[in-house]
């Protein structure tokens, strides 16, 4: 710039005016440059045009002197105006120095740069689109400029550029997406606002299909949705809403699989708006994509399940999460149990596109070929299909792992635990063969869940355990039964599995050996009974508060005879005699009082069939752990003579307060509707002498108490046998006379009773001895 010849064809006056500090003088110089360039255009002198632009760029716009830079900017704008429609040939040379000035420290200079670029773009119009990325990059920086004038100028330029993009059909979306993906992660509010505004514009252009590239920017959009500015959040919400509308209109062109994990992440966001929006998207994805979403089930469940326990403050999120959960559950079908998980992928039905297909996820899609994105491991695979089936895999291992985690987490809410149990039950129904591979690992946590505070959780847990215990898929081959549960039965209290053939289980039989009148349970039934009793033994509070509830529900879900038969057989070999007595008392109370056991009581009342007699003998042997319950069982089965024989043996037993309390309860039970038939049989004194003797025996055991008065009054109502005789003695008597069953060895049963009671006596003496030794140690 020291020599005039270096700046020709610019005159010295123009050069001085361009570097003047006054804007008006620079403007006059710009008009002279415009006139000069017009002459070159008219002469088609491209070399001189390039030379002028180079001078304005190198010597002025990129100068160290601020006024020179200002002059260079207005000069470049003047060149563009003079070039008119030909400016497109020189845009690179015109734009680059102006964009460099966007980074100038002087805010006034940045403003002039905006002004210059506005004039350049206004003249070039659609010709600037090949340079769109550099323009967008520069504008995204100015959008966050602290100077309001610069920001205002950049907004004018931004609107102009949006108009050009909107009216053009030559926008290079493929080249723009990488830049958009990079800029969308800006934390500056103004930059975010700028990004969202451009996304809204591009989405509104019919010729631009931004939906194809949504996976590239979806994560950034959800991050912007968490901005502190309400205006930006609203803009982002609108943009996401527009995308979702487009997805619903054209589900066949959506890359659901590529966006699934993005939604999973944001469904777990701490921000309520982000979480609700992501959950709404997830709901639509599951309903629109169908089984394409199955490979992501474990991630979806990780995000959805905790939301099910939200309170009313997050009611909207909870409701949407519940729909997601239900919709996802419906995607699992019985065919999944037949698929070979060893293969990388398996054939499953194509994604549904209508409500009809959603209700029948196994149905393929008819019509034109459609494009979907399925997943094989980490790699995404594009698949064409029409009537064919797409390739996905039900990752059952991952799903079970997530369900196990949420069920084990004690901090998880009740509704989440219920949902987990419903999921497990659903999987055992739809894919039992595969699910039984996980049963040994799930069994301990399902047993622990029986101690849950919620009755509803326990009910669902029992339904699941009952399904496991009765499912044909749980039937193992000979010699390949379920694990012995040693991992879930540690400690001193161990319930031994009986090995005697003909009881309930043996190493040579499959599952549980039941009587012909009951359905056969699978191999897990007996294991369940063993571990349930072990649970009651180690957690006595559970037995006291929920024991009856649990057993009654199991009698509804499974066969009551199987349950009582198996528990009685296990308790027969229980080493903890005190627990055995308590458990027998609980079972007896349930047997005598629960409406669920009505059929079983009727079966035991008459002992007409071999099965009922077998059941009586089995129960009797275990009921011997508790003398009073043994008598009540004899009353129930109308074995009055044997009941009388048992009561005669009570004189040899240690009569304790607990013993008398149980006798008191038995007297109360006799007055209940269950024993109506027994009270009516007191009218037939002649045929039921042992019943009366047994009741008098109980009366003699009782101290002077309310129970004594109650039973005494009842016995006073027994009529005189002579008064009960009819006048016509020629007719045969139709009164039922109950005789002992010839197929039951009552002598052996009585000996067994004495043997068990001797064991209890020895055990009490041992406990008393240990307590005395402990007291002595304390004194010493």
From TrEMBL:
Location, primary (coarse class): membrane
Pfam families: Vac14_Fab1_bd (PF12755), Vac14_Fig4_bd (PF11916)
Family as reported in the entry's similarity comment: Belongs to the VAC14 family.
Superkingdom to which the source organism belongs: Eukaryota
Region (Disordered): 472-492
Described purpose of this protein according to its UniProt entry: Scaffold protein component of the PI(3,5)P2 regulatory complex which regulates both the synthesis and turnover of phosphatidylinositol 3,5-bisphosphate (PtdIns(3,5)P2). Pentamerizes into a star-shaped structure and nucleates the assembly of the complex. The pentamer binds a single copy each of PIKFYVE and FIG4 and coordinates both PIKfyve kinase activity and FIG4 phosphatase activity, being required to maintain normal levels of phosphatidylinositol 3-phosphate (PtdIns(3)P) and phosphatidylinositol 5-phosphate (PtdIns(5)P).
Lineage: Eukaryota, Metazoa, Chordata, Craniata, Vertebrata
Protein keywords: Endoplasmic reticulum, Endosome, Membrane, Microsome, Repeat
GO CC, alphabetical: endosome membrane; PAS complex
Name of protein: Protein VAC14 homolog
Organism: Malurus cyaneus samueli
Subcellular location: Endosome membrane; Microsome membrane
Subunit structure: Forms pentamers. Component of the PI(3,5)P2 regulatory complex/PAS complex, at least composed of PIKFYVE, FIG4 and VAC14. VAC14 nucleates the assembly of the complex and serves as a scaffold by pentamerizing into a star-shaped structure, which can bind a single copy each of PIKFYVE and FIG4 and coordinates their activities. Interacts with NOS1.
A GO biological process held by the record: phosphatidylinositol biosynthetic process
InterPro entries the UniProt entry points to: ARM-like, ARM-type_fold, Vac14, VAC14_Fig4p-bd
TM ranges: none
Record has Membrane as a keyword: yes
Keyword Cell membrane found: no
Domain Vacuolar protein 14 C-terminal Fig4-binding residue range list: 540-718
Gene3D superfamilies, per the entry: Leucine-rich Repeat Variant
């Amino acid at each position: 710039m020291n020599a005039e010849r270096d700046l020709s064809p610019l005159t010295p006056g123009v050069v001085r005016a361009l570097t003047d500090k006054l804007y008006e003088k620079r403007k006059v110089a710009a008009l002279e440059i415009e006139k000069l360039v017009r002459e070159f255009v008219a002469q088609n002198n491209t070399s001189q045009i390039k030379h002028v632009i180079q001078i304005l760029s190198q010597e002025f716009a990129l100068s160290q002197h601020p006024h020179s830079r200002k002059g260079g900017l207005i000069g470049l704008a003047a060149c563009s105006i003079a070039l008119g429609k030909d400016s497109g040939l020189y845009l690179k040379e015109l734009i680059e120095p102006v964009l460099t000035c966007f980074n100038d420290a002087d805010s006034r200079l940045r403003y002039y740069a905006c002004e210059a670029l506005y004039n350049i773009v206004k003249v070039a119009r659609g010709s600037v689109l090949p340079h769109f990325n550099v323009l967008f990059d520069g504008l995204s920086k100015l959008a966050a400029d602290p100077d309001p004038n610069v920001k205002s100028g950049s907004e004018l330029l931004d609107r102009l550029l949006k108009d050009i993009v909107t009216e053009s059909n030559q926008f290079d979306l493929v080249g723009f997406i990488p830049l958009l993906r990079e800029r969308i992660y800006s934390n500056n509010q103004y930059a975010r606002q700028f990004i969202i505004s451009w996304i809204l514009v591009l989405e509104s252009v019919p010729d631009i299909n931004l939906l194809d590239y949504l996976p590239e920017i979806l994560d950034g959009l959800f991050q912007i949705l968490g901005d502190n500015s309400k205006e930006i959040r609203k803009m982002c919400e609108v943009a996401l809403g527009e995308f979702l509308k487009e997805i619903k209109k054209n589900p066949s062109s959506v890359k659901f699989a590529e966006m699934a994990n993005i939604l999973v992440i944001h469904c777990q966001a701490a921000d309520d708006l982000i979480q609700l929006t992501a959950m709404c998207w997830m709901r639509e994805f599951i309903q629109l994509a169908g089984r394409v979403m199955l490979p992501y089930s474990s991630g979806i469940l990780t995000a959805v399940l905790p939301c099910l326990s939200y309170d009313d403050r997050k009611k909207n999120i909870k409701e949407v999460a519940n729909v997601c959960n239900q919709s996802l559950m419906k995607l699992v079908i019985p065919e999944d149990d037949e698929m070979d998980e060893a293969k990388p992928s398996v054939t499953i039905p194509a994604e549904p596109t209508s409500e009809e297909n959603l209700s029948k996820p196994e149905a393929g899609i008819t019509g034109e070929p459609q494009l979907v994105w399925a997943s094989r491991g980490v790699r995404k695979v594009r698949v064409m299909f029409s009537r064919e089936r797409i390739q996905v895999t039900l990752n059952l291992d991952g799903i079970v792992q997530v369900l196990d985690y949420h069920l084990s987490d004690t901090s998880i809410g009740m509704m989440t635990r219920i949902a987990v149990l419903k999921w497990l039950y659903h999987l055992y129904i739809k894919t039992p063969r595969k699910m039984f591979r996980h049963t040994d690992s799930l069994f301990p946590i399902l047993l622990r869940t029986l101690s849950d505070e919620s009755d509803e959780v326990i009910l669902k847990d029992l339904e699941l355990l009952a399904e496991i215990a009765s499912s044909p898929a749980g039937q193992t081959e000979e010699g390949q039964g379920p694990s012995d549960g040693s991992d879930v039965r540690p400690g001193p209290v161990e319930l031994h599995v009986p090995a005697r053939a003909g009881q309930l289980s043996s190493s040579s039989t499959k599952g549980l050996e039941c009587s012909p009148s009951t359905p056969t349970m699978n191999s897990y039934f007996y294991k369940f009974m063993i571990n349930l009793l072990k649970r009651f033994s180690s957690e006595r509070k559970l037995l006291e508060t929920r024991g009856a509830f649990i057993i009654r529900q199991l009698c509804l879900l499974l066969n009551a005879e199987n349950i009582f038969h198996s528990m009685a057989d296990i308790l027969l070999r229980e080493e903890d005699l005190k627990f055995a007595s308590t458990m027998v008392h609980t079972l007896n109370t349930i047997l005598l009082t629960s409406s669920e056991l009505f059929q079983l009581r009727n079966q035991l009342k008459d002992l007409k069939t071999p099965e009922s007699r077998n059941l009586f003998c089995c129960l009797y042997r275990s009921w011997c752990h508790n003398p009073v319950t043994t008598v009540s069982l004899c009353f129930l089965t109308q074995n009055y003579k044997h009941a009388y024989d048992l009561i005669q043996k009570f004189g040899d037993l240690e009569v304790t307060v607990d013993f008398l309390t149980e006798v008191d309860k038995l007297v109360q039970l006799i007055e209940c509707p269950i024993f109506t038939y027994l009270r009516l049989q007191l009218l037939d004194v002649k045929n039921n002498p042992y019943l009366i003797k047994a009741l008098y025996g109980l009366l003699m055991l009782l101290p002077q108490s309310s129970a004594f008065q109650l039973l005494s009054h009842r016995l006073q109502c027994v009529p005189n046998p002579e008064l009960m005789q009819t006048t016509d003695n020629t007719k045969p008597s139709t009164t039922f006379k109950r005789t002992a069953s010839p197929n039951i060895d009552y002598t052996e049963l009585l000996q067994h009773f004495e043997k068990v009671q001797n064991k209890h006596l020895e055990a009490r003496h041992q406990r008393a001895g240990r307590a005395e030794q402990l007291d002595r140690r304390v004194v010493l």
